[in-house]
Amino acid sequence: MDLGEGRFARASVELKVLPDTRRIRAYLRWSDGGKSPARYLGQVERETRAANLAEGWKMAWEKGLLTEEPQAEGSWASSPSVRAVMRANRSKDTRPELRLRSLLHKQGLRYRVAARPLPDLRRTADLIFSKPKVAVFVDGCFWHGCPEHLRESHKNAEFWRSKIEGNQTRDAETDRLLQEAGWTVVRVWEHEAPDAAAARVISVVRTSSADQHNSGQSESNMKR
Question: Helix (H, G, I), strand (E, B), or coil: what is residue 17?
């Protein structure tokens, strides 16, 4: 961001949810002499946090608030704006995750957040239900290659295709390793309706709990 007189600052897009209407507003924020000014960009209404951030950056460019900075050597992003969006895209506590967690909690389900189902396996699930051994992953449409919403980038296409295919291979391996260890894996796309996703998770958790209970009773009867 050009501050004038040869001064530049790194800017970021901030999203704020209005408590009464639940509408989302995008702001451009930057640092200047120890202060953090902000400029209102507009209202955003996309389905995901990543899409809303991208829309906010688009507004900032259209308003002429940003200027390109020199591309970092060896950078994987096609432009500074793309790099900023990707860096701002959270790996946890995303909006779809928070909605899902809220609905599950209201139904009385308790879970661990961002935890490893298997301590010795460096794979983290977004939610785990330890007793019924259910692991839930909320997958971003871009990073995990959603068949409905993935739009391939025209810039650095080979890099992004390789990155996404690598994520899909890792996802499949994670599912296999957890299933072999007796876990049930549930994968939720970030675009899924929260109520439908929550209902699916609840059904799996309760079915797994019932199966374990019945299995425990059968073993107890056999020992008698």
Answer: strand
Partners of residue 188 on adjacent β-strands: 138
Cβ contacts of 146 within 8 Å, gap of 6 or more: 139, 140, 189, 190, 191
Structure tokens at 114: 């961002």
Order of strands across the sheet with 11-17?
11-17, 24-30, 38-44
* Burial call 141-165: b when 16+ CB within 10 Å, e when fewer: bbbbbbeeeeeebeebeeebeeebe
Distance of alpha carbon 201 from alpha carbon 135, whole angstroms: 9
pLDDT tens-digit series, residues 19-62: 878 889 999 998 887 788 899 999 998 878 888 888 888 898 88
CA–CA separation, 61 vs 71, rounded Å?
A: 17
Q: Which of 111, 190, 203 is nearest to 150 (CA)?
A: 190
Name the H helices within the chain. Answer: 49-62, 80-88, 95-106, 157-180, 194-223
